[in-house]
Amino acid sequence: MNEPDQLHLRDYIVEAEIGAFQSERGRSQRLRFNLTVDLAQPVIGVDDDVDLILSYDVLTDAVAVGLGDQRFNLLETLAEKIAAEVLGHPRAGQVRISVEKLDRIPGALGVTLTRRRGRVDAQQAADENELVILLHGAEVPRPSGAVILTPDAPQLPIPTGGNERRIALLALDQAAWALGGRLALDVADNRTELDWAVKEGRPMVWAPARMTADIPGLEADPISVALWLAERMGASRLDLALPQDAELPNVTTDIPLRRIG
User: Fold this and answer.
1) What positions does the domain Dihydroneopterin aldolase/epimerase occupy (predicted)?
2) How far apart are CA 35 and CA 12, in angstroms?
3) pTM of whole model > 0.85?
4) What gap in Å lies between CA 23 and CA 21, rounded to an integer?
């Protein structure tokens, strides 16, 4: 059996903020990436034509997209995202990826995984279901299909002092769990579960604090948070279920807005 042709990216070092520990927040650390891609077809017969091969840029771009998607706590989640980006290219059949932290200990800490086409949620897999983000600020019927519900601010006093933005985000998380309970829907706080729900065409409630806590400049109000998610996930539109006396917000975005309820 012939071995597949392969493409490599080796010892690619990038600084990024990542990690679950408090000591890793607010600071960058060096990450080393090694990727090996098994090509779906051999390179025989490409006639030295760059348009007929898998470009090395696909690998470096996948790393950049993964790091730019959100702040990750786990190397495993980052590696899954990068693998999905690579396997979104039709000339990639399998990818082996290693991601290592270089600044935690004198050596390297990391993860290695191998993914084949069909085992990951590449972006076009999510595109099979039209994604709608729904800001649940007023009671509307329980949705079906690929809908991610974001919570309204809870109508409760919020403690003052300390990091008020983080407290407000945690209050939105509480509202998300309450909403999930009322509608009998699962609640997710990470991109991996959200992508899975979209792929499966299932509604899900989003608890935003984990994904948004470290996003600079993002206000901790329900509309800003919902719009951020809609833009980040490439939603087809943002539905706003608002009280009847509430005005439609004046925001600048390419995401279509629709008032419902």
Assistant:
1) 7-115
2) 9
3) no
4) 5
